[in-house]
Design a protein that fits this description.
The complex is a heterodimer of chains A (71) and B (243).
Chain A: E1 4-5, E2 23-32, E3 35-44, H1 54-58, H2 60-68
Parallel strand pairs in A: 1-3
Antiparallel strand pairs in A: 2-3
Chain B: H1 19-24, H2 33-44, E1 51-55, H3 61-70, E2 73-78, E3 85-86, E4 89-90, E5 99-101, E6 114-120, H4 129-139, E7 140-153, H5 173-182, E8 185-192, H6 194-206, H7 211-218, E9 232-241
Parallel strand pairs in B: 1-2, 1-6, 2-5, 6-7
Antiparallel strand pairs in B: 3-4, 7-9, 8-9
Helix pairs in contact in B: 2-3
Classes of the chains: A alpha+beta (71), B alpha/beta (243).
Chain lengths: 71, 243
Amino acid sequence: MSTMKVLDKDYSHWVCARCGQPLQPATVELEYLDSLFNVELPACAACGLVLIPEDLATGKMADVESLLEDK
Amino acid sequence: MTCTGTAPAAACEPLWARPAMRGASPDAWRPGGLELTDRAAALAGVKPGWRVLDAGCGTGASALHLRRRYGALAAGMDMLAGRHRQGDVPCRVATGVPMVRADAMQPPFIPESFHMILCECVLSLLPDPARALHIFRNLLRSGGTLAVTDLYLTGQKKHTLPAGSCLGWQATRSGILTMLRQAGFLPLCFEDHTPMLGTLAARLVLAGEPLCSLSAAAAGRSANIPHTGTGAGYFLLLARRSG
């Protein structure tokens, strides 16, 4: 399954608060109900913490949840 | 329902032609992708050397897959073969696949040329699906197999949709099976794969297609993949040429 780019903005200046490492684009699996999506999100290379920006959570991701829940 | 953006100016474009499809499903512009192609191939029992026609092949991804994985002599036919664009970007075409640029209603092949015809998310877009089935029957050898995937009405809700959308053909399961029999086919199986419709719609949203434009598609105004809440379903069927 191909990895989708879901963010338009650059988050390379963000730093992991725990590790102090800059966030780097990483392929992340998003799972919702029975669907699995590979998307590119900023993540800490040291601890793996993934950043999900608020506008993604309340935008596309909320839309996808709505779609898959058939609301 | 919320909308994450304004509907694109090109909302009248079919969904496969929109830039978001490049991210959502780069090679197979339909629900299920090659996974559903594999299901059709398994049910049909595709064998090495089979002559398979992918009618409405797009970039030729399915034909290439059938050649590589099953050893089939698969070829593609598409009105826009080699000329598809998504937004301003020309689409990548599968290499190593014979492709013919032709209208599925007027295929340039002699009768009984193929062991199998694959028609993925295309039948509903043809101007006369019933006549297309007759044409496909004539292209198949005796006992040849037709595999179709497409949208259908599940019967859960009533629709008033104009012609020109995938659901414009108002196809129900029983209507499709009747159309097949009238064209000289013996239906072998009819499987529901509606969850794949929702998954592709979700991938399109993640790739940037506004949810409201999918809703427009659901209303039959623009294109291929409706919101799953419309009572639209997605099927895979296999049928054998009778006689």
